[in-house]
Amino acid sequence: MSSTAFASQLPTARAARPVRAARPARPAVRPAARAQGSLRLTRRGRLVVLVLGLVAMLALGVVLGSVSAASDGSTAGQTETIRVQSGDTLWDIAAARAGSGESVQDVIDEIRSINHLSSGALMAGDQLEVPAAG
After folding, report:
1. Across the chain, which distance is largest between two alpha carbons, in Å?
2. Which of 2, 19, 81, 111 is the most buried (most CB within 10 A)?
3. Where is each LysM domain found (predicted)?
4. Which residues of the chain have pLDDT under 50?
């Protein structure tokens, strides 16, 4: 084999790429104007702040709602405790407590609400908070 045949099989050298100038290094300390009074949050940071704000508003709403519900009783301080006798019904008790012009059913609903009763069933010996006689 001749040297020219061997030379044609060698890879040819490519032209060298131009060298880029290096970027100047970032300063280790941020400029004073940016460090004072500006806070940069990432996308995740903004999401966390938003969620925490919503949770805080929800908690505040629950607290204020429970305080409002606790003070909403129209008969607060105007109740009496009675003991259910044998044969007493919720209707009889409510009828005795209903004022003039007041519906017995409204008084039954109020007694059930005050005592957290799910039904009108009463047992002899039960103690009930009832509106003061009107």
Report:
1. 130
2. 111
3. 80-130
4. 75
